[in-house]
Amino acid sequence: MSHQAATPDASGQARALWLSTIAFTVCFAAWTIFSILGVQIKRDLGLSEFQFGLLVGTPILTGSLIRLVLGVWTDQYGGRIVYTAVMVTAAVATALLTFAYDYTTFLIAALGVGVAGGSFAVGIAYVSKWFPKEKQGTALGIFGAGNVGAAVTKFLAPFVMVALGWKAVALIWAAALLVMAVLFFLMTKDDPDLAARKATGAKPESFRAMMEPLKNVQVWRFSLYYFFVFGAFVALALWLPRYIIETYGFGIEAAGMIGAAYSVPASLFRAYGGLLSDRFGARRVMYWTLGVSVIVTFILSYPPTDYVVQGISGEMRFRLETGVVAFIVLVFVLGFFMSLGKAAVYKHIPVYYPNRVGAVGGVVGLIGGLGGFVLPMAFGLLNDLTGIRQSCFMLLFVISAVALVWMHVAILRMEREAAGPALEKLPALPEMQPIHGAVQEGALRGRAIEDWRPEDPVFWEEKGRAIARRNLWVSIPCLLLAFAVWMVWSVVVAKLPAVGFRFTTDQLFWLAALPGLSGATLRIFYSFMPPIFGGRLWTTLSTWSLMIPALGIGFAVQNPATPYWVFLALALLCGFGGGNFASSMANISFFFPKREKGNALALNAGLGNLGVSVVQFVVPLAITAGVFGWLGGEPQNLGTGGTLWLQNAGFVWVPFIAAAAFAAWFRMDDLASMKASFADQAVIFQRKHNWIMCFLYTGTFGSFIGYSAGFPLLARTQFPEVDALQFAFLGPLVGALSRSMTGWVSDRWGGGRVTFWVFALMAAGVYGVIHFLGIKDQPGAFWGFFGCFMLLFFATGVGNASTFQMIPAIMGKEMGRLMPAADATARRAQAEKESAAIIGFTSAIAAYGAFFIPKSYGSSIAMTGSPLAALWGFFAFYLLCIAITWGVYTRRGGLLHDVERGRTPGPAVNA
């Protein structure tokens, strides 16, 4: 039953709106209490930047994660009782804050305080049920203005803290929550939906039914927008007082008031944003929000900089810096437009999901709230890594720019699809329109291959095999270069100290790990790109993109004064290479029939993986000579008296990247049958086996790429007397060759069974590494350590092939269950489409191993003085992978048991 089933009385409607708004204001004030208290706690406990970010973000985490459950409960049991319970719980937690005495207890208390943040999902669901859809934008905008609670805390808490101490702030805020809970319960009524259900005796819907809308892609699109407009708002609300104190030298009281200048408009004008969304449409409001945010965050991200221009009459010096007045104005503008955006996002939810406002609004609020948790920690981490206070606004600039571009591209694509037939009739250039007719339609437009039937033996032998192999052999060098650029830091970081860069061991591990983080993240998007843009265009563009980090590294390493943040940026840009794997594999999978698909994917991936070995073999040689002469720059002098051309680590790939990109453009093809929208491919997120295979492939490929990135630096730190860099290329070489040469084993015995024994072998290999590190001072320990790593690399290669062999088999068998009424052709087509998307997506998730394994080494060494803690964690992970592979796939009754033992016909996809 929708909220329109019963007509609410005007007085109940008004009380529901205004009391919910006031209650949300009080809850938000408590939720952001650490934005003020955290400054004093940081001083008292001597917290680092990251620890401070974690402390102020912890309540945001609780308040975000709990929103989904609270939203569903509100739909089921009514906002009046759930809202009251939330406020009482938050009041108790805030009062208990006064008993915290060290960092750990403050974190525990902060988790409880975070319950107050869940009130947003409750209020959205409760208020929306009192208003018709044409007024919901305004009503929810007014309710959302309760964000002003952050300004209340910033304005009042500093004065209370100075006068009475920080404990008084916690007790007063707890009392306000308790009083508001009592008033709300006594003065409000059940919403019309709940009242109607009670009158008829109907039971609330189940939790599972409430979750049904979360399968829709647009819910997650809303969540992305809200991550910025709300998550960034909360993050800045927590971060600004401290930022102002340390950047402009203000006291806590003044900083709180300036922070309020940001929070007040970002809250009160949310109601105006709802009105504008009702009147002019949410799309226009979102364009203004993201467009202005991009401009403002760019200005705020510019650090104070001194310039010296060599003029005609001598040097001209000037300084660019955002003064405090300009800063306050810009922050006010940013807060204003964020407030409009928050209302615009939530305008859609009660219109399209009137009976699921709690669930959908809860998950959108959850993602937005997670922004408020993640971003303060990211701000602190960026300060630690870059040493630039404005780095927080640099991150917000990137997020807002990505959101704006993504939204605009999505809108253009939607409009193009709607106007597709009309656009097809237009000439390629407007100059030709006066003489353009039916004869010329499409004559000059590049076309994809329309007739593609790889499963037809006659077509394959006469035409298909030659085209598919040509695309494969162009794809392989492109992918090899991508891996080389992605992993170049694994060699470069080991040489930076020798040429004069004074980075700590932890900073060096960060440089080795960040390409893995960005590459894995990009893979999530890259995996869907070939069906959207076409494999030929996307392979060309993604290969050209490798030029940016290759040239950047070549220039940056020539000057020891190059700041660390430049190296961080270049390390992230190397992720372009990591992203290419997902799109390359998804593209090639469409060209080959199932009987040859496994071998083709193994060749593409295995020979592409050779890029890791190539970079660790070529770079140590290339940096020892002036390969490019004067064009490559001067060599760097070593402390031992030798010289290095470290810039060649980047420059050496430039001519090959250009050649490969031209080859991709002129020799690769697009397939019309490959075309699919993101929505078509997003069905894989509903497939449980997609997530299981993500986990297992992380164990194989994540280990391969993580060990490749971390082995050189790990060996140097644990065995400094051995020049391990000369052997580093052997591990990736073994892993790449074993992947490309052992695909037949999985075809013969089954990918599930091979994967099971691969993980057993990997667990044994890690145990061996742990053993030899424990006796690393004894003769021969390094060679035992090295041999165990070679075993690990071999096993990862075999496992990379076997897990990818499993995916088509799994989806082929699953289609019989998922599409029982479809014929074999339809099941095969759907299985191929989903298998390609799953292959790309699993490779994206698994690539995070390139970040987590080197970072785990660095963190373990920093905290314990040894990498053993990280290695024991890897050992436990492999044991879990063994259990999952056996329990889901290979045991008697498992999904692949009968298929791999030949007791039933092959999967339906092979029909």
Automatic annotation (TrEMBL):
Belongs to the major facilitator superfamily. Nitrate/nitrite porter (TC 2.A.1.8) family. GO terms for biological process: nitrate assimilation. It comes from the Bacteria. Pfam families: MFS_1. It is found in: Cell inner membrane. One of its GO terms (molecular function) is nitrite transmembrane transporter activity. Residues 16-418 form the Major facilitator superfamily (MFS) profile domain. The chain crosses the membrane at residues 16-38, 50-70, 82-101, 107-127, 139-164, 170-188, 224-244, 250-273, 285-303, 323-345, 357-382, 388-407, 472-496, 508-526, 538-558, 564-586, 607-631, 651-668, 689-709, 724-742, 754-775, 781-807, 836-857, 869-889. The keyword Protein biosynthesis does not apply. InterPro entries: MFS (IPR011701), MFS_dom (IPR020846), MFS_trans_sf (IPR036259), NO3_transporter (IPR044772), NO3_transporter_NarK/NarU-like (IPR004737). This is MFS transporter. It is a multi-pass membrane protein. It comes from Neoroseomonas eburnea. Keywords: Cell inner membrane, Cell membrane, Membrane, Nitrate assimilation, Transmembrane, Transmembrane helix, Transport. GO terms for cellular component: plasma membrane.
